[in-house]
Amino acid sequence: MIHQLSAHNAVRSADLRQKLAKFFNNSHFELSPLDNGASVRQYFRIHFRESLYFPTRDVILMVVPRDKLEMADDYLNISYYLRRQGIPCPRIFEMQREEGWIFLEPAEGEQLDIYLKNYPEEIPSLYPRVIDFLLDLQKKAVFEGHCRFFDKEKYLYEFDFHVREQIINHHLKHTLSQSDEEIFREFSLEVSTFLESTYPVFVHRDFQSSNIFYYEKNTESPFQIIDFQDARSGSYIYDLVSLLWDSYVDIPAEMQLELVDVFYRENENLQTHFTPEHYLQLIDYQIIQRKLHDAGAFVFTFRLLNNQQFLQYIARALEMAISVMNRYPAFMEISQLLQRLMSLPKK
Predict the structure, then answer these.
(1) Which residue of 157, 175, 186, 282 is most buried, as measured by CB atoms within 10 A?
(2) What number of CA atoms fall less than 13 Å from residue 183's CA on the CB side?
(3) Residue 102's beta-bridge partner residues?
(4) Is CATH 3.90.1200.10 the right assignment for the domain spanning 110-343?
(5) Cβ 316 vs Cβ 246: under 8 Å
(6) pLDDT single digits (tens) 153-200
(7) pTM to 2 decimals?
(8) CATH code, residues 2-104
(9) Domain boundaries, the chain
């Protein structure tokens, strides 16, 4: 049923091109679909054969499903917010909300994950620079009280939706027993309560290599961020964990620990509010939460879009979470439960 809904909402390139030609009153352009990743939004590159409607001949078109137009509103508002704070992101040229269209300036350079697949030897030199970029982002992104929060209730919702429903029920084909339900509930509450931040900062929410563009020739900043419509106020370390425990780029454990230490030493607010021990436990709990969320999101993407591209990352995300859970005796039962379910043959 989910796949049928997805197919119904999908935008066909031929129909879209016809509507765009009418909108521009000109058909002298090329329309090429782009990789949508794990998003329900669709992306297209428009290349105009002559200067016509926008300041550049190449434009990125984001198409938001008609039943999710609030995504377009969120993208627009957060884009304005980021540009007010001087944070590099592609400029919005125009939005046609009733169509779910957002016309964007192309990001400069190449997605970081793609770049690093071609030049893996640059991981040790590039990631410290991305850490500096994140530190600068958190300094510039002034807190605004009307922003959505990453609070305990949000974390609990994500455990329920991504872990219980997507991973356990749909991917592992299992329904929790009453005793297992109690173990899961205590685990979810412990992690969610510990992670709830009383010192919120801007959180991109998906600050990983696939959402960072790299262009060395840009002298102001070689990095730009995209896909920020789900941004919230939350923990200092959420984006740090998303970056260093990335499902798409293998970062050596020694480098992860080194950059975690650098991030702490370079962030006065972290040092003021958290001891080194508390900070490292925050990192661990955030890894657990983030990687379980990622695994559930990969399952949901497959169910929603029939996109098999991300199925290969589910086991890796679960293993990252479980390896950290095993350090904590209180999480041993839930860790053993997940490992047992993962070892069972799929029904």
Answers:
(1) 282
(2) 15
(3) 62, 95
(4) yes
(5) no
(6) 999 999 999 999 999 999 999 999 999 999 999 999 999 999 998 788
(7) 0.93
(8) 3.30.200.20
(9) 2-104, 110-343
